[in-house]
Structures are given as structure tokens and as C-alpha cells.
Design goal:
Number of domains of chain A: 3
CATH superfamily of the largest domain in chain A: MoaB/Mog-like domain
Oligomer: homodimer
Structural class of chain A: alpha/beta
Strand content of chain A: 25-35%
Helix content of chain A: 40-55%
Amino acid sequence: MKATILTIGTEILFGSIVNTNAVFLSRRLNELGVDVLRHVTVGDNRGRLLKALGQAYEDCDIVISTGGLGPTEDDLTKETISEFFGRKLQEHPEELEIIRNWFESQGRVMAQNNVKQAWFPEGSEILPNPNGTAPGFYLTDGKRHIYVLPGPPRENVPMFDDHVAPRLSAHEDGYLFYKIIRTTGIGESDLETRLIDLIDGQTDPTIATYAKPFECTFRVASKRPTLKEAQDAVEECMVRIRAIVGDFIYSEDNKDLLEIVMEKLKEKGIKIACAESMTGGMFAKMITDVPGASKVFSRGIVTYSNEAKMSELYVKPETLEKYGAISPQTAEEMVRGLSINSGCRICVAVTGNAGPDADEGKPVGQFFVGLMSGSEVTVKEFRASRNNRNYIREFACYQMVKMVHNALRGID
Amino acid sequence: MKATILTIGTEILFGSIVNTNAVFLSRRLNELGVDVLRHVTVGDNRGRLLKALGQAYEDCDIVISTGGLGPTEDDLTKETISEFFGRKLQEHPEELEIIRNWFESQGRVMAQNNVKQAWFPEGSEILPNPNGTAPGFYLTDGKRHIYVLPGPPRENVPMFDDHVAPRLSAHEDGYLFYKIIRTTGIGESDLETRLIDLIDGQTDPTIATYAKPFECTFRVASKRPTLKEAQDAVEECMVRIRAIVGDFIYSEDNKDLLEIVMEKLKEKGIKIACAESMTGGMFAKMITDVPGASKVFSRGIVTYSNEAKMSELYVKPETLEKYGAISPQTAEEMVRGLSINSGCRICVAVTGNAGPDADEGKPVGQFFVGLMSGSEVTVKEFRASRNNRNYIREFACYQMVKMVHNALRGID
């Protein structure tokens, strides 16, 4: 299967918003084994939308569109797609009822122009939208398929997962089942080398590795006449994979390392605190991005200046003078000070140089992470490979998460 | 002028990276008065690239492409564009010398395949790239124009500003000059109402307002036979604008509020510290995103738990019990505690509910910012209009920046 992702929205052409829909859909489609050949964004413009559809079906069988399903006159996605497929728009009274009820549930009255949101091209299958007023739809003439989704990610993400992904699997003869496996502590080429016999030796299940920032991910996919058979084939392959690289696997269902860490902290009832120099609050922000972080996160201390390191974390002036702020000694004293203040079971601290220039003679990208689990302190040195401030800071946060993850492995 | 933004890169079709180039280019092109009709992303694929070019010139006169200029075989942007325009590729010895020198300056030896980066279609104008190995180029057949830029933003952003923007202005008969004016404390419709006579009454300069997150921006643009005339026309118009909405303007050259605040802090030699509850480190992270933040930022304290608010910031247990953590009283005690710890001239603190659920009976989106400038404390209450965790946290950070900005106005 080959797909074009079609985004409809003038605000993207103005650069007012980032096209995150295309990122999400690309990832999911690739995971499902669909080749994404093209992203196209056009405004709410009939002519350009018709052209984009025409070109998409020259080499793709699937179009996934997002946006332009609003109630205003600007929004002409449905009209244009109907025209392209030579279908009429029909009102669906039961959908109108759902939209009316949705407004009521929000304590609002439905405006007349929302009626338009209950009109769909003849022969459409409606894709329900419990998170907004615009339902999506699926339309096909047997050869060309289109999935039409609303623009807001909180509406189209669940719609894709609940209603598009299952239908895409059904386009194929047979059922596709796959798992996304996430690893840490092993590079892409090393991973590939270890799995090479499995990768080369079989056509189903297939194993494909992907490099993500700082870590490696791979997909194990099988297509079989029944879902059960596909699942069994993937599981059988996983048994062999776990025997080879099981130590590096931290998730078999595509969760990221921070998610796993936050879940384990909650599960084990462990509190965490952080002290940051070079990352300047980025680690605390990442943790508190997760709703419910307050259950496990006690505090973060951003000690950007040496004075702050001394007064907030009791780093000794002699240590700063003798070894500098960017040193394993300072990292250790930071994490010990944090532990005294917070009383948390796990404390993590970072100090380093995010650039752009050398600092205290320490090269850009060098940093030290101190981790304290109970009374045990570990300090590790790292060096980011790129001279890019944001990259270095994200890399440091990733290493902090990884060290917390390792520490959690040792705690029952 | 009408443009298609063409992104070339398989990694975008995999969803591995976000197409920030399209966002940047869209903004800049719109500011320059160029209509962006379409974004298209294709992989490193000759056929699809040729099709995309063909379709772009059906309704556009300009294509701006990014990506695919690397030294490997995958990168076939130049070959394909040469083919499309019917030109041959020619080696530019002086460019080869520049690339070789660039490698030397990095302490590396140029590989043989980098020679390819010094080949350009006949008749190209080279666009220099001081930030990488791949120069860009501009090619036209008189009717169709293409600007070909490398993929990495730190290479293509300066290339666009230094070499593409001036050429785009020259495409037009006459010179375009514009200013982007940023305001705070006034909504888009209010701004438009106040400027309506100026907006409606003239065709040049033109005034267009844009709503950005949390604030309003407008562009004043003039196209005249000489650059000087265009600049004078814009300045004349600005005199009238300043008389009407001058109080709300904080930047006349498109700098954002945080940038202005950081500059003023540096200029005045003022140190700042922050204490965050709901924003969980986001404010500290924003500040430390700016290189050189260490000159003005002393520390940030992320007190997520009540214990942390008490032990790190001396918030009284009675205050938390009587008024709750989400209260003006707690915000005030947080900022006073921070001031004691940090000794900074400006301290800012926030406490609130970022959702997803009501907390202590305080609604989602409610928050309090405490600001201490010298010995003077101000506490303000805010309520974000959307129930979206990230939006609420960003809105809170914006209000913190705004209050610091106001405080700086009162300090000589």
C-alpha cells in the first residue's frame, strides 16, 4: 500500500502552526507497513485540492487527509472530495443528532452552520469523533481510498487509531500484526549485526530497525490469514529476539523510556528529585509534562550559578575552585545535597557544558550525571557528539532518564 | 509572487523529523509578501521530484526547495533539478576549494564524494553556505525560479535571510520593505479596531495583523521604486501607529518578549530567579534555552510538592492549609522565599492548576504569578481559556515573562 498525506489548512501555509499531523500519520503508517510517498499541504482551495488528489492517485492507492472539516464556508474539504469522486453530499440525520448532543453535553447550543458537519459523500463510512464536532469518513471507489480526518490532533489521533488503522489492515489480504520494540544501550549497527540471521533469514515476520534520537527501535511484523496466526508468528520471533538482545529491550509496546520510568516510580511508590545545571529545568519540565507527575516528583533545583550550587545544594567552594562546576566531584556533591533537601529515594543531578563555547576549559558537549539511589551514588561522564545546544541538553536529559531507569531495575 | 515549498527527505516521510523548514520558510515568505500555495514533501526519488516540480510551476513562479544536497548517492536534488530545467551539471572549482577549506577548518579531510557538492546546473547563481559543506543555488529560465537550499535549519536559515530574501525582493518591480511589530496586552480585534482607519485608508504601506499564541503581531509593508522610499513610507506610517497603540508595542523588529527581557536583564546587569509549581521547570528551561543565560539567571526552584514549597521556599504550613497551594498567598510566599534564597533583584513564582482535573477545588487553568522587584511584591491571578495542559503551562510562562518585562520598565 502506498499513501499520500494531505493536509488542508491555510494556517500551515502561513507558518502559524507546525504540521504535527503529518509526523504522527507518517509514523503510524510506516509502522503499519504503508509506504508514505508524499506529504502535501494546500489551503482551503478547491482547485489546488482537486489537483493534489489527482496527483496523489497517480502513484498511491490511499490518501489520508486532515483538516478543513469545520462548519464555516472556508471549509470545503467534503464538497471537493465529493466532487472528485463524483458523489453527492447527503445529510446523515443520526450524525446530526450526535453533533447536537455533543453541543448539549458542553452546555452549548448548536449553531445552524454545524448542520454541514452531518453531510457526507454518498457511500461514505462515518468515522466517529467523540472528541469534537466533526466526524471523519472513509470513501472508496474500489481502487482509490480516502480517509478524511479532522485537523485537531486530539480528535484525529484517536480516530486514526480506533477507526483507520483497523481498516488499513483489512485492505490487505490477510492481517498485519506488529510490535514496536524499544531498546537502550545498543547502537543501530550493533543491533542489526546481532539480529542479522533473523533479519536475513525470513520474509515473515519481518524485522526492521530504526534509529531514533539516542536509541534504537525495531519493528517485528507479520501478515497472516488470521490475526491470531500473525500474533503467534510475532511472539515466536520475539522469543528468539529476546534470547539475543533481551537485555537491551525496555519496552515491547512502543512506550518511551520516560513513560516507563514514570510508571515504575508510581508502581513502586518511589519519589524522585532532580538538580540541573546545564539542562536548566529541561529534565523537570519533561517529567512534569506527564499528567500525574505530582505523585512521584518532589522537586527540581536549577542551580545555574555557582552561588546557587553552594547555597541550594551545599556544593563546597573548594570543590568548585579545585575541579570546576563541570566535574564529577561537583555532580556528586549536587546529588548528595539534593538528597539531603528532598529526602527522595532517587535523586539525579547534571552539570556540563551545553555550548556554544568551551567553559572552564571543558569542551562543548561534556557533562556529568550523578545518581543517588538510597545511599549509593554513581557518577558517569558523557560527551555529546554534536555541537548543538538543544541536542546536547536533550541528550543529557535522556542519560538522566536512563540512569534512573537502571537504578529502578535494582529496586524491588 | 506565488511559491511552492518543496522539502526533499525520506526521514520526513518516515515521521522521524518534523518539517520545521516549511514553517520557517512559510513565515518568511508571507512576511515578504509571497503567497505560499503549497507545501510538498517527497523522498529522494527522481520521478516524484520531477512531478512535484511540474505541478508547482502550474500555478507558482517560485519554488524553494530544502534538502537532498548531501554528498551521498541518495541525494539527487541537483541532478533532478538540472534535468527538469534541461541544464547540464558543471563543476565550480572555486566552490570545491571552499568546501575543501571548510573541511580543513574542522580538522577533517574532504572525502572524494564531497566533490559532488561543487557541481551545479549551468547558469546557477551559487548561494554560499558558511555553516556547512553544501552550497545552495538559484536558477531561473526567466519565468520559473528555484532556490535550492540545504536541509539543516542552521544552514538554510542564514542562507535564506542573506541570499534568498534580497533576491525575492528584486523579483518585483520595486523594493519591498517591511517591519514586524509585536505587541502585548491587546487582542487582535481591539488592535484592528484602533488601527482600522489606517488599515482601510491606504493601499501602501499595508498593515496586516496576525494573532500569535498569547499576543498580537502586525506587519507594515511598503513597495516603492527605491528601498529608501519604502523605508521612509513605513517609518511615516509607524509614527501614526505609535501615536495610537505605542503603549502596547514591545518590539519593532520581530523579537519575542523573552528575547527582549533577556537583553534588558543583561544590559541592566540584573539577576533573575524563578520558583515554579505548575510549570514544572518550563520557565527555567525557556530562559536557559537562550545561550548566555548564565549571565542573568541565578537559579530556578521547581517545588512540585507542598513539602518542597515549605522546605525550599519557606511557604508556611498554615498558608497551604488555609488557602491551598493554588492561591495568591502561596504565590506571594513562594516569591518572598525565593528572594531570600537567591538575593536576586527580580524573582518570579507561579502556582496553579495545569489540569487535567480540578485540584483543591481550583479549576483547571487557574494560576497565580508572584513577582518581586527589589522589595515590592505583585501577585496576579490568571485563567487560561483552554483545558490543555501544555497550553496552560505555556500561557503561564508567557505571563511570567510579561510580568518580568513590566517590572523591567520601572527599573532604570
